[in-house]
């Protein structure tokens, strides 16, 4: 079913602030996703958890603490899985730099003590989900290792999850191989567990995020922002103008805060867990004679100009 505008998987009343957890591997675009979430009135950000992916768990954990301080977030912080469930570790340091933030970490002007971060992201997510009366949305923008462990170890949390908005996979093309996108390539078994879990999913895949780009003019606007983030964020984003580096992860947040900028289709999506070029490939099953429930709301297109405006305006605080 191809629909022009995305509705929430469960509708959000006007002015309602929905409880939110973000599981991430910052990572430059993860950092932008945290900023977009912070700027949105639509969320109560209850927890931020780190997973190894773009960089090792030590670096991604440092970066969730850094942005919790920079953005003055009082979310609970916890570090998660240091490697994928089955496959070997695989990083994207060449894209995000050794500090995970394009070399700009020192410009954000915060010192890190590490004392705010709890161990064991899975237990922390379980606690936050069960103690919250309402259903909680999860934004998952790194390899899905923590999320898969959560759903397997504590299946009772499924009924407390409103939706999992995922950045990963692709209906066409890949970035690690011609067929496979980074988050699902790193931990295909975790992605397969999540897509078979029965939990409502929204997917921001490469086929759509490829258009989530910024221009040099956008970068200049960000740099000239009056807020404290302008200069450091612009330094972090210095390689992003153009088409080589889309800002993938903010799409998974905007899917919840600004669904009107996307189109979508409800599909049945499977994950290939075999090693090699197809490792982590996400593919749809549209065979009409195979009776099956769809398992995912796949975002098809993003309104590029609205995305750019939202991103630039996000940093004006
Ligand atoms: O393929 C893009 C995804 O991989 C993004 O989440 C980026 O941060 C990296 O983790
Ligand atoms: Ca990421």
UniProtKB/TrEMBL annotation:
Organism: Proteiniclasticum ruminis
Pfam families assigned to the protein according to its UniProt record, in alphabetical order: IU_nuc_hydro
Gene Ontology BP annotations: purine nucleoside catabolic process
Entries under InterPro entries matching the protein: Inosine/uridine_hydrolase_dom, IUNH, Ribo_hydro-like
Residue span, Inosine/uridine-preferring nucleoside hydrolase domain: 20-308
Cellular component terms per the entry's GO annotation: cytosol
Key words of the record: Glycosidase, Hydrolase
GO molecular function term, any single one: purine nucleosidase activity
Regions annotated as coiled coil: none
Top-level division of the source organism's lineage: Bacteria
The protein's name in its UniProt record: Purine nucleosidase/pyrimidine-specific ribonucleoside hydrolase
């Amino acid at each position: 079913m191809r629909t022009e505008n995305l509705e929430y998987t469960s509708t959000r009343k006007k002015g309602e602030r929905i409880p939110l957890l973000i599981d991430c591997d910052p990572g430059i675009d993860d950092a932008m996703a945290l900023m977009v979430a912070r700027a949105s009135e639509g969320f109560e950000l209850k927890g931020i958890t780190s997973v190894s992916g773009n960089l090792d768990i030590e670096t991604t954990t440092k970066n969730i603490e850094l942005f919790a301080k920079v953005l003055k977030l009082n979310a609970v912080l916890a570090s998660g899985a240091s490697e994928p469930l089955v496959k070997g570790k695989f990083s994207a340091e060449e894209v995000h730099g050794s500090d995970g933030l394009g070399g700009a970490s020192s410009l954000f002007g915060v010192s890190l003590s590490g004392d705010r971060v709890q161990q064991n992201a899975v237990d922390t997510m379980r606690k936050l989900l069960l103690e919250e009366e309402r259903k909680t949305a999860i934004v998952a923008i790194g390899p899905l290792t923590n999320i898969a462990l959560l759903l397997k170890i504590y299946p009772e949390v499924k009924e407390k999850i409103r939706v999992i908005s995922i950045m990963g996979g692709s209906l066409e093309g890949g970035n690690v191989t011609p067929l496979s996108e980074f988050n699902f390539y790193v931990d295909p078994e975790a992605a397969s567990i999540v897509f078979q879990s029965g939990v409502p999913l929204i997917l921001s895949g490469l086929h759509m995020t490829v258009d989530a780009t910024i221009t040099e003019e956008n970068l200049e606007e960000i740099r000239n922002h009056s807020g404290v983030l302008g200069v450091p964020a612009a330094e972090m984003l210095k390689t992003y103008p153009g088409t080589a580096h889309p800002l993938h992860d903010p799409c998974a947040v905007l899917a919840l805060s600004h669904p009107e900028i996307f189109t979508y289709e409800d599909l049945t999506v499977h994950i290939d867990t075999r090693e090699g070029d197809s490792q982590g490939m996400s593919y749809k099953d549209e065979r009409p004679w195979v009776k099956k429930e769809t398992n995912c709301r796949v975002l098809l297109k993003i309104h590029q100009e609205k995305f750019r405006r939202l991103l630039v305006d996000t940093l004006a605080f």
